[in-house]
Write a structure and sequence with these properties.
By secondary structure, the protein is α/β, with parallel strands linked by helices. The chain has ten helices and five strands. A five-stranded parallel β-sheet has the order 2-1-3-4-5, sandwiched between helices. Helix 2 packs parallel to helix 3 and helix 7 packs across helix 9. The radius of gyration is 17 Å and the shape is globular.
């Protein structure tokens, strides 16, 4: 049996944080290592405990979730951040994604969605709440008037094969590795091999980065 996923919870709402922690502790493959009540405490605990994932709120005292995410990703690139927020404002969404968050979930989601998202982040995926995903695609495809500034991809991106583009389009739809495998009638291992090649060619380390850059370069559109 593999080691449990080590999770740090950061939220200034004590009852909500403790309730979430209690529910996650019921999962045999998730271990809540600590809880933080503000952004600075999240940074300090992440540095001390080196969790696999920080589940991060946005609006917190002392230091915001945006600043805490940026600091954690700079200091600890191996620690992933999954945002769990009540806010779906564009300013929060894109600031957090730019700060290095691997996924963004709304607090209206059921606990099962949070558990699934934690596993997805741990597996290298970038889960987005459906409402958030649509905002991202709309903004990055230029269908909103104020496109978000994203880090440009390196100019020496290698051309993707037709199959890799198919995989990338399915990534943009939020499909899991298994769902992509079923859609393309290939194995999960083959999907992972394609993802490895895509990430290497695009010089990225996550699904979300690959999708955002692909949209920026007009490889994908809202209708893809």
């Amino acid at each position: 049996m593999s080691d449990p996923i080590r999770v740090l919870l950061a939220d200034d709402h004590i009852m909500l944080r403790q309730g979430t922690a209690a529910l996650l502790r019921r999962e045999p493959d998730i271990h809540v290592v600590a809880e933080a009540g503000n952004g600075q405490e999240a940074i300090d605990l992440a540095d001390q405990l080196k969790p696999d994932i920080v589940v991060m709120d946005v609006r917190m005292p002392v230091l915001s979730g945006i600043d805490a995410t940026r600091r954690i990703r700079e200091m600890l690139p191996g620690v992933q951040v999954l945002v769990l927020s009540a806010h779906d404002d564009d300013q929060y969404i894109f600031s957090l994604l730019q700060a290095g968050a691997s996924g963004y979930l709304l607090k209206t989601a059921p606990v099962s969605a949070l558990i699934k998202a934690i596993h997805q982040v741990h597996d290298g995926e970038s889960p987005l709440d459906p409402a958030i995903a649509r905002k991202v695609v709309l903004r990055m495809s230029g269908r909103e008037q104020t496109p978000v500034a994203v880090q440009d991809a390196k100019t020496d991106i290698e051309e993707l094969t037709a199959r890799e583009l198919e995989v990338l389009k399915l990534l943009a739809q939020g499909l899991s590795n298994n769902a992509i495998a079923q859609a393309l009638s290939i194995s999960d291992r083959t999907v992972q091999a394609h993802l490895t090649n895509i990430f290497a060619k695009m010089h990225v380390s996550s699904r979300l980065e690959a999708v955002l850059i692909a949209i920026r370069r007009d490889w994908l559109t809202l209708a893809s």
